[in-house]
Design brief:
The protein is mostly beta strands and 233 residues long. It is 9% helix and 32% strand.
Amino acid sequence: MKRWTQHDARSKQIVEADQINDQQVAFRGEMAALDRAQYPQNCLTNAMLKPNSRHKVWTFVPWDAGGGAFRLGEQTRYRAAPGDTLDEQFQAVTYQEYGYGWATAFETTLTPFKGGSLLTEWFGLTSLQVFFTYTLHNKALSAPQGQSNDKYVGLRILYNGTVVAERLGPAKPADCFRIVGESQVPSGDVVLTLQFKVTGAGVDDALVDSATADHLMQAHLYGNRVVCVGRWR
């Protein structure tokens, strides 16, 4: 249906932004079919709607390290074997199992997704080896010179292989994190991918325990939870 653009005549023909926004809101419902705001009053009630007709929520506790509920949400993608781990450390990311770069920590398919807004929140805890960040050799051999080998756990969220949120992430020996991403996604199955990246080894990093030859922890993620909310109209 044709709708004429409406505006008020003003000095030098200036049009207020709110007038353009009002027109865009009116057109949007006509382009994408009826919006709920355009329905006659009380023609549609909650009792008439089927489950997930307007939104759907997914919750995940990624990774199961075994050993009961207290180990749920503990990172298992890269972890040292029990025999290579010091008693006082996590079975965690070590440089023997992990080198550098983005690693897929958790991936799943969200279905059914009817098209619309998809919001994902990923939160958890980290432990990080930061004590060899800035050393004499790191300073002397860096390019340009004087740079530290900054330790952090990078985090990002992807929908169907496209990054929708990315952050530098925790950079303390013990920390919590939260990353949230939202995007408009077309209808169909959505592949949700969560990735992390740990700083690569510096020239002075301690890789093994000198007394036991056990692999030393560099980073660990635990207590992870993921919530996704899809909203469509």
